[in-house]
Amino acid sequence: MLVLDKISSGYGRAQILRDLSLTVRSGEILCLLGRNGAGKTTTMQTIMGLLPLMSGRIALDGKDIGSLSAHRVPQAGIGYVPQGRRLFTGLSVAQNLEIGLLARHSGPDTLEEVLTLFPRLRERYRQRAETLSGGEQQMLATARALCLRPKALLLDEPTEGLQPSMIEAIRQVIVQMRAAGVAILLVEQRVDAVLSVADRVAFIENGQGGEVIEAETLRQDHSIVERYIGV
């Protein structure tokens, strides 16, 4: 379980998050939904130690991780697929995955599980990441995060700019990770994609938490979504 308890964060002197609280249960997909600039990516970066935690507490399975340096957060069991992927484009698929494996000292069994989830990457195993299509690069970024054997997985706009077949392939993997007991925090602007996988939806506005609502409720009534993001 990933818990954010009244966290505040920002860039330099600019505070973005203000007393934001969220709980992502093990085996759950919680989608963080809000307008551009609401603080969604800031939330992810704060969890990962990439931005300073000004106040509040971040805990994974009861252990405080808010004080960890950025390189130690993945070691604690949090996988992160950032917006823009941030692959080592000059390295091969194999080398990018090896970096993920090293972060938590995972072995060949983990690598085989990940390649089974993404058979396309097995076919491209020796290719440089820069030669992959956008969808294949997104698969690689996700696979690299899964090499950590994460307890929690953060995904920032994983379907952005992808064709439908790639979106579906990544959606299936996300659903499998939920079934395996991973706590998944998903940032996604496409409301249809959100409602196809999410268990609950947490709204964020001006860096502050709003309502947290069962996804099934939103499937039946879109008025709440319209209020928060104007679609």
What can you tell me about this protein's structure?
This protein is of the alpha/beta class and 231 residues long. It has a six-stranded mixed β-sheet with strand order 6-7-8-3-9-10, with helices on both faces. Strands 2-1-4-5 form a four-stranded antiparallel β-sheet, with helices on one face. The protein is 38% helix and 28% strand. The chain has two domains: 147 residues, Rossmann fold, CATH 3.40.50; 56 residues, no CATH class. One of its GO terms (molecular function) is ATP hydrolysis activity.
Give me some keywords for this one:
2 domains, 28% strand, 231 residues, Rossmann fold, four-stranded antiparallel beta sheet, six-stranded mixed beta sheet, alpha/beta, 10 helices
Kindly summarize this structure in a few lines.
Helices cover 38% and strands 28% of the residues.
Order of helices and strands: EEEHEEHEHHHHEHEHEEHH
In terms of DSSP E residues, the strand content is 25-35%
Proportion of residues in helical segments: 25-40%
Count of structural domains: 2
> pLDDT below 50 for ≥5 consecutive residues: which ranges?
none
* Highest CATH level, the class of the largest domain: Alpha Beta
The overall strand count is: 10
Helix/strand structural class: alpha/beta
CATH superfamily of the largest domain: P-loop containing nucleotide triphosphate hydrolases
Q: Output mean pLDDT.
A: 92
Main beta-sheet strand count, sense and barrel state:
6 strands, mixed
Q: Shape from CA axes?
A: globular
Radius of gyration: 17 Å
Which CATH architecture of the largest domain would you pick?
3-Layer(aba) Sandwich
Separation of the first and last Cα atoms: 31 Å
Strand neighbour order, sheet with most strands: 6-7-8-3-9-10
- CATH topology tier name of the largest domain: Rossmann fold
Tally of contiguous helical segments: 10
